[in-house]
Design brief:
This protein is mainly beta. The protein has two domains: 6-164 and 239-248; 170-233. It contains one helix and 16 strands. The chain has one helix at residues 189-192; strands at 6-11, 29-39, 43-53, 65-70, 97-103, 117-123, 134-136, 139-140, 148-157, 170-171, 181-185, 198-201, 206-213, 218-221, 235-237, 241-248. Strand 13 (206-213) and strand 14 (218-221) form a beta hairpin.
Length: 249
């Protein structure tokens, strides 16, 4: 008798820093199609957890949003939904879509985490129509990831509220490509950033991936700073929403 197997995939869609400087309104693109791999073959989506960073480390971002899932067709990825923080005015992706689910305010845990992040979880079953419980199957990954299929996810804001990922963590000392140390000021790095975050400045210059957040004013990167960023430039985590997708095969 066959037994089911479960696995989870962590997906960190990117939102350009320059698109995070202003608030998102109703029906804006949160993030465009972002690819991820699952083991080859059909799999049933049975759970979604969303980790949503707070505004500037502490402001509420408990808001509804929709997730759309898609696949490539004959190796061609779905065309763009549109620019993040703007209307979803893209075209041509219609036949790529394979499913959706929505995260509502009620799906977020009580906000006992004072700073940093909100947590929302959907699981299959129950009375809600938006609980994930559908089968997805993509095309083989065209890269070197043999044995895996490629799928895509995109996010749109919901019918109420304003997502705001604005940051006032500023460059305190001009970054240099000869050191992995980043000095910041104005707002604590401890409440805004975490190990593994990819930092860009407000002009979309790549700074690097965080190895450790050492203090309110000090960050160490995994490698030397990728770009020179001037004092007073705001720094952004380009993946303020993390998705943990649970599957059954």
């Amino acid at each position: 008798m066959a037994t089911s197997k479960h696995f989870a995939v962590t997906v960190k869609p990117t939102i350009p820093a320059s698109n995070q400087t202003g608030a998102f309104v109703q029906a804006d693109v949160l993030f465009d199609w972002y690819g991820f791999d699952i083991p080859k073959g059909a799999a049933k989506l049975v759970g979604v957890t969303a980790l949503v960073r707070k505004t500037n480390g502490s402001g509420a971002n408990v808001l509804p949003f929709a997730l759309y899932y898609a696949k490539s067709i004959d190796g061609v990825a779905p065309s763009s939904l549109g620019t993040p923080n703007a209307t979803a005015d893209g075209t041509g992706y219609y036949n790529n879509i394979i499913g959706k689910n929505s995260i509502e305010v009620k799906d977020f845990a009580d906000d006992y985490l004072d700073v940093g992040v909100h947590v929302a979880t959907l699981a299959a079953g129950g009375a809600d129509a938006d609980k994930p419980s559908f089968v997805m199957q993509g095309e083989p990954d065209s890269g070197t990831n043999v044995g895996y299929d490629k799928l895509y996810v995109a996010g749109l804001t919901g019918a109420s509220g304003v997502f705001d990922f604005a940051s006032t963590v500023q460059v305190g000392t001009e970054t240099t490509t000869s050191t992995a140390a980043v000095v910041v000021k104005t707002t604590s790095a401890l409440t805004n950033f975490a190990t593994g975050d990819v930092l860009h400045d407000e002009d979309d210059q790549v700074i690097g991936t965080i190895k450790t957040v050492d203090s309110a004013t000090g960050i160490t990167l995994e490698a030397d700073c990728a770009s020179v960023s001037a004092v007073n430039k705001d720094l952004y985590n380009i993946s303020p929403i993390t998705l943990i997708l649970s599957f059954e095969k």
